[in-house]
What does this fold into?
Amino acid sequence: MTLDVWSAPHIRHNETTRTIMGDAVLVLLILYAMAFYYYGPRALALGAWSVAISVVTDILCVLISGKRPNIRDFSPLVTGMLIPLLMPATIPYGAVAIAAVVAIAAAKHPFGGVGHNVFNPAAAGFSFSAICYGEKMFTYPLPLQRLPIFGAEQVVNGISPAFTLSLGGIPSYALLDMALGNFPGPMGATNILVILACLLYLSLRNTVRWEMPVSFFLTVSVFALLFPRTSAEGFESVALELMSGMLLLGGVFMLGDPVTTPKRDLSKVAFGVVSGITVMLFRRHSSMEESFSFAILAMNAAVWGFDMWGERLYSIIRRRKGGNSPDKAVPKKT
Amino acid sequence: MVGFSKGTMLAQHKEPAFSKPVVRFVNPQTDSMSIDYPPLKNPKGIRADEIIDIARAAQIVDERDGKLLYRKLVRARNKTVVVVADAVDDEPYLSSKIAPLLQFKEEVMGGLRLCQTVAGIDKLVIMAYQVLTGVHTKLPKTVDGVEVVRLRGKYPAPAHASKLKVGQGRMLIVGTGALIHLHRAVRQYRRQSTVFVTVAGNCVANPMNLEVSLGISVAQVLERCGLSAAPTRVVCGGPMTGIAIMDPEKPLITYTTRAVLAFRENELDAHYSCIGCGRCEQVCPEGLNPMYIYRFVRNSYYAPLRRFDAHLCTGCGTCSYVCPSKLAVSAAVREAKAYAASHFVSSGDEEVDDIDA
It folds into this structure.
């Protein structure tokens, strides 16, 4: 009997990459259910279209790079599902397709595919589409109207709170309505309470670490409290900043993406704080209505620095606790 | 290391081997070998140097670290504040330290008291890993008047944890198997010819703890317990740290073989790439970052490894265990450790392990 060679350990945890991605897919499906409730079948059609484009692009990229496609890899599914949720329900199919192609073929695979991408694919795809389509990207329909799958011309548009805030006004929507998602905005980003429930689920499942979203939201809140953008002050300013635009959805799904964040707990907290400040500065000084994805891309570029800072910190802790430093030990070979 | 009380919870799978009696599976020729030592003048008041000489003549090896017991006794003599009987089976499936303790109480305690005579102190402690669920046998609070310190919680249960509970100072840690053999050597003049081995795994028909003669092959041990299916992986040692063997006929049971495990599994999910989830560094008990070490080693880029302290790795295997992509993280960290040992570090780390200063 000849057996294969294996390295220890010989037992493995039963959670796989598929479990992690499956968790993300599950909560995104819930957001799609909410989008279907508010905007009708067009929401689902946009999602299916984006997923199809992402998966096909992903398989093509994998084949071009000479590897074997892995059908158990759900990561293009997650990217594809996330992209339309960041956009209005009236978005043309072309904008979604461009975003999906850019996300997979420009932001993910040139850097080495799953787990090696420097920039969050969904953020990169959305940013590219936002530059290309501009106006249409930020024209949001009023919720609770059934949009047709094709040709969404006769649609009543509303004014999103993010737009009002960027002009310096105060949105007229009731805060309870905003918490329930009953206001114009990105397709999946308006369901505040549902997204918070998703964050709770994901952090309990250890798919998203709680440190970073929590420190990020706290920083944004403190920033909004201290430096309100409009005449709304105190709690109202905090609530409006948190609930407008894609801040909550992006904070959980794009900023919380484990691939493009620092790994250490302490560096995650630091990253969340700096990201919060960056996002708020982008909001204040950008001419665009929604600059969140650009802020995320800027922060993603800095992840390596945060990681190395975290490693340095932990190596100091390790050596304080009694581990000897390789620098102080006498080298064997000169 | 106290600062990083991490690690992971493991399903223990200790039953049914744990609660079954230990069965002898010995070679009759080696089992009756006795040591060549003159009879004691006063067996009741045996002296420390006599115990050390007998341990030397009986060639007893401590199964927890593979060192000769008499050397450990010489080093610990009059310098130790506490003698610890090590019955910590924190790896799943294993019960080859704790089961002999429960079955051969008199012999373990006899060996422990002999170590006490050598060290010349009063304080004795038994250290055991408490499995909270799924076992039929309860750990006693004391054995023959000696306190059983129970380690709980996550794998790996480090020896450092015991330091907090039994006080500061040097301690002599001896495995229960070596204590039993020390007792037999002193009282019956028998050489160590057996070790205690757990035989388990998902295709072993009759998992149990065996007292096996040294030099019996792994295949014979598996045959003794029966196989319910053809194994795809046979492991000498624990499931987290053991070595997978290629041909069960060839390797033999040695002094440090703690278990023989046979698994049958399907490895369908084997080709994911690292998704950078960072779970490995969340669980590393030494506070290392296995993810970056893995990436640098896989890209053969060794220079930055200096700052990642791979030489501190204890080889517990927790990083590979939690990896959702099923990568050989722990093997890469061991490679980095070997590289660090030959290029960065040259201190005598090996000697400070058993008797902590």
